[in-house]
Amino acid sequence: MNMKISDLGEFGLIDRIGKTTPRNAKRAPIGIGDDAAALLLSPSSTLLATTDMLIEGVHFDLTTTDLYSLGWKAAAVNLSDIAAMGGVPRFCLTALGIPPFLTVEDIGEFYRGVNACLKKFGAVLVGGDTCSSRKGFVINVTVLGEALRKVIVARSGARPGDLIYVTGTLGDSGAGLELVRNAECGVRSKTPAVRKLIGKHLRPVPRVAEGRKLAAAGIASAMIDVSDGLSSDLGHVCEQSGVGAEVFADRIPLSKELRAAKGLKLPPMKYALSGGEDYELLFTVPPDKIKKLSALRIAATEIGTITRVRSMRMINERGQGRPLMVSGYDHFLRLRRGHVR
Ligand code: ADP
Ligand code: MG
């Protein structure tokens, strides 16, 4: 009988692709399953490679984003994956499926955004592909970066007792998405706080310098960028490291703008746990490296601890624990279905 992809979900499907694909562990010590692949070109040089697609109607809506922001974001989400490995982004390729309604000026604006983002983080566009699309705008961006083999940080290195940190604040982007949709529906109260949340959604800033510093100093045992929400991305680290986690609810960093935002459908914490697209870095640090971490002066918050027991738990202000449900976006389950890992 044919199995439906919706029965497996996005991550189940990727897992299956990985298991049925031959590996070359010598040349590609990190392949399918991390933020970027790590490919050995020579003993001294490792290439990092990542690719992400953005599809109109799935990842973005041209009524709520301008083309400059879309270009910026398409580059930023890939740079974020290089950051999550502790690498330095160098080169970019962009492939487009362009629908009939986009103009030359639109594509020009898109590339202004792409190039501005790449320039800010030291990368350069070197190629791609251009096709027509019958319906929506389809964008694929690939970024290549580099890192010394010994400093690359995988998702799989977290160990029991390591502390869990996250850069910046979580949930702003998810709330920003809801607010920009509301604004489109005629809600006109775009205060500076609302604009800031929307800005975090439309033009995320990848944590390239932070990822690189953490890797160079040998501080992070595991790292991932928060693209699908804290619960989902911490879940990936736990699964690949063969560990569990305890997270303290009141330590999860929420911006004052998110806490104060009016008219959101869900409580702020929900956006942090399952909103996604924050592109902050989530990383783990062995206890004996904490001092070194504070010397780096990275804006990061300790939110919990890695455990031997392979489940994720959330501890509330009263010290009571409950299972932390994985509730990020899955392309095929098509809903934010909660399940316990
Ligand atoms: P991220 O959110 O960090 O971009 P994804 O969840 O998109 O990561 O992908 C997880 C891993 O699976 C990555 O290593 C990615 O390269 C790999 N992957 C995803 N889709 C495919 C595919 N169709 N074929 C091969 N590898 C894939
Ligand atoms: Mg990632």
Detailed description of the structure:
The chain has 341 residues and is α+β, with helices and mostly antiparallel strands. The chain has 10 helices and 14 strands. The longest helix is centred in the first third of the chain and has 17 residues, at 67-83. Residues 14, 17, 32-35, 52, 81, 227 line the site of adenosine-5'-diphosphate (ADP).
Helices and strands in order:
Blueprint: H1 5-19, E1 37-42, E2 45-55, H2 67-83, E3 88-98, H3 104-120, E4 124-132, E5 138-147, E6 163-167, H4 172-184, H5 192-202, H6 208-216, E7 222-225, H7 230-241, E8 244-248, H8 256-260, H9 268-274, E9 281-285, H10 290-296, E10 300-307, E11 312-315, E12 321-323, E13 325-326, E14 339-340
Parallel strand pairs: 3-4, 8-11
Antiparallel strand pairs: 1-2, 2-5, 3-5, 6-9, 6-10, 7-9, 8-10, 11-12, 13-14
Helix pairs in contact: 2-3, 2-6, 4-5, 4-9
This protein binds adenosine-5'-diphosphate (ADP) and magnesium ion.
Residues 35, 81, 84, 224-225, 227 line the site of magnesium ion.
Query: What gross morphology would you assign?
Result: globular
Give the termini distance in whole angstroms.
27 Å
Q: Give the uncertain stretches in residue-range form.
A: 335-341
| Assembly type | single chain
Largest sheet data: 7 strands, mixed
Ligand list: adenosine-5'-diphosphate, magnesium ion
Q: How many E strands?
A: 14
Helix/strand-derived class? alpha+beta
The overall pLDDT average reads 94
* Residue fraction in strands: 15-25%
- Overall radius of gyration: 20 Å
DSSP helix fraction: 25-40%
> What order do the helices and strands follow?
HEEHEHEEEHHHEHEHHEHEEEEE
How many H/I helices?
A: 10
Going across the biggest sheet, name each strand in turn. 7-9-6-10-8-11-12
